[in-house]
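Chapter summary example: a protein plus zinc ion.
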Amino acid sequence: MTFESVSFLIFNVPLQVNACRLLLLFRFNTNKMRFTVLLAASWFAFAACQNQESDETVSTAEQEVPQLLCTTSIMADWVSNLAPAHMEVRSLLQKGVDPHVYKPGKADLDALRQADVILYHGVHLEGKIIDVLEKMQGTTVIDAASQVPDSLIVADANFPASKDPHYWFDPLVVRYTLEHISAQLSAQYPAYQEEIETNLENYLREIDATADSVQKILYVLPEDRRIVVTTHDALSYFARAFGLTVKTLQGASTVSSFGLREITELVNFICENGVPTIFLENIVSPQSMESVQRGCEKKGCSVTLGPELLSDSLGNETDQDTYLEMLLFNATTLVKYLQ
Ligand SMILES: [Zn+2]
């Protein structure tokens, strides 16, 4: 084989092995005395490079990063704990955004279309988003609450025919939810089933430990101080799980309206029960609770307007940005202001 014929072969290899071709040319630009030895070595190098290129192409295609899109920051944190580390998990809603009334915009619709898997809370939490999801085709959509027994779902205190969607505040209900998500992700990505199941076991253990901590934190509150007054009825599951009473202006959705009658009733309740603090929420405007506080002052009973509890979203602070921190943050905040 002549130098010219080898050069011809090298110049006609596919473009994707340009780097290897340059390596070979560099070697062939030496004097012809070393040509034969370099020829053999270079073809080995060429074959190795070509195989490596081919393997990388297949590998990239197989390992395309799955996009898991969750409706809320709470769901995104759950899924981050369950999914294999290489999968990308995002939340459609930013922290502090109310999922009850959120209407998806064009960018949201694009994100939903591009996702490989979409996960939502269900029980009508994400009213307008669910309307969109029900019309989607060709994307795996996981209703996280679909396997939760009806007996564990709380009825909306203000509208008993409706269900309360804030089940994430009861760790027992969360267990059903996470087991369902885990099973669905395993079905979608069977190669990662073992990893997902291990992640589930570990995370459930963390949740159980955190629930024990929450119980211990709240234990110091005497019976007559275990009353949580806030805007919308997001904490009924928390109250059921940890032995509290919740009173709110609105029902289990921020869509439900309230007026002077509801404010007056809540003011009367606060004054009659000597409630020391009422709380804001991180997804709701403070105005309604400010009205309640003013109503209490007019009635002659003083009440503190406490900080925001985390209701339908994680918080932005470092002690509020995971689901487990959310439970602990609410418990410590309640104790701090109700004790
Ligand atoms: Zn809510």
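Key point: Residues 35-62 form the longest helix (28 residues).
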